């Protein structure tokens, strides 16, 4: 299995928010049966502890690491790399239920959302500022009759995005490739006391309509292939529907929407 590690994604997001051009740097652990032959094929020195290598658009450095070729974009990152038993740390952070996916997935993507949350929220702030300027521009081509509805939709997705960013502490995506196609499993450790966590925390009263988990608690005790519960009042869907219903009362909205589309 090959491992790809990105440690500076937050910095890359911050750079993009400020119109910078910093690209996230990645390190790869590639399983090899003959390390010296591997680096020789990439133009490296098989006798050196750390050697420069190159393939396609990648120019970096490599060293042998317990049967793997450790490859990074900078000499400093390759020199500083040391194994830290992060699989154990991830299992502990995600909980015991993810062990099956950690051990059995053909491909895994692990994201420390808590460390990315400040940068992602800044990106949302920037996006909302740009949308606000566009919406407020008197010369834009958005029909006046549609602006109120569009603003409500944008605010809904802003709230939805922030709820996901702030509510997920750790996320693990496991992919399995088989004859039947691609299977994906997403596991998440929710942030304690977050709004998202409250959606899945049963209240004392089973069936409490203000709590999605409480609604799920009313299901009979049997196996389900799929069960879903959504508290629309928490996500602001009702406000969006009411706004759409309000403007649907006139033909101007339909005409404006068609013209805008």
**Distance between the amino and carboxyl termini:** 46 Å
Given the structure, what is the number of helices?
12
- How many strand units? 8
Q: Identify low-pLDDT runs.
A: none
Q: Give the averaged pLDDT, no decimals.
A: 79
**Secondary-structure element order, as H and E?**
EHEHEEEHHHEHHEEHHHHH
Overall structural class, as computed from helix and strand content, comes to: alpha+beta
Instruction: Profile the largest sheet.
Output: 5 strands, antiparallel
| Integer-rounded radius of gyration | 25 Å
Helix content: 40-55%
- Bulk shape: globular
> Beta-sheet strand percentage?
15-25%
What strand line-up does the widest sheet have? 1-2-5-4-3
Commentary on this structure:
By secondary structure, the protein is an alpha+beta fold. The protein is built from 12 helices and 8 strands. The chain has helices at 9-17, 35-41, 75-80, 86-94, 99-104, 113-136, 144-167, 195-199, 212-216, 232-235, 237-247, 251-260, and strands at 3-6, 26-31, 51-55, 58-65, 68-72, 107-111, 168-178, 181-190. The strands form 2 sheets. A 5-stranded antiparallel β-sheet has the order 1-2-5-4-3. A hairpin with a 2-residue loop joins strand 7 and strand 8. Helix 1 (9-17) packs parallel to helix 6 (113-136), helix 6 (113-136) packs antiparallel against helix 7 (144-167) and helix 7 (144-167) runs antiparallel to helix 11 (237-247). The longest helix has 24 residues, at 113-136. The radius of gyration is 25 Å and the shape is globular. The two termini are 46 Å apart. The mean pLDDT is 79.
């Amino acid at each position: 299995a090959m491992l790809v590690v990105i440690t500076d994604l937050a910095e890359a997001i911050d750079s993009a928010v400020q119109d910078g051009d910093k690209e996230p740097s990645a390190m790869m652990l590639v399983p090899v049966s003959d390390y010296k032959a591997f680096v020789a094929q990439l133009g490296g020195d098989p006798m050196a502890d750390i050697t420069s290598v190159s393939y396609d658009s990648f120019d970096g450095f490599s060293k042998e690491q317990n049967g793997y070729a450790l490859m990074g974009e900078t000499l400093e990152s390759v020199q500083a790399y040391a194994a830290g038993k992060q699989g154990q740390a991830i299992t502990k952070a995600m909980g015991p239920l993810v062990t099956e996916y950690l051990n059995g997935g053909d491909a895994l993507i692990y994201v420390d959302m808590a460390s990315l949350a400040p940068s992602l929220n800044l990106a949302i702030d920037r996006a909302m500022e740009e949308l606000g300027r566009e919406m407020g521009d008197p010369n834009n081509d958005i029909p006046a009759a549609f602006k109120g509805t569009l603003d409500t939709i944008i605010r809904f997705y802003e709230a939805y995005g922030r709820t996901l960013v702030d509510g997920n502490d750790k996320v693990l995506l496991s992919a399995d490739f088989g004859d039947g196609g691609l299977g994906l499993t997403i596991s998440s450790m929710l942030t304690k006391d977050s709004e998202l966590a409250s959606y899945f925390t049963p209240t004392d009263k089973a069936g409490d309509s203000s709590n999605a988990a409480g609604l799920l608690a009313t299901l009979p005790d049997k196996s389900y292939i799929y069960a879903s519960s959504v508290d629309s009042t928490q996500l602001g869907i009702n406000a969006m529907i009411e706004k759409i219903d309000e403007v649907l009362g006139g033909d101007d909205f339909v005409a404006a929407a068609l013209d805008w589309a």
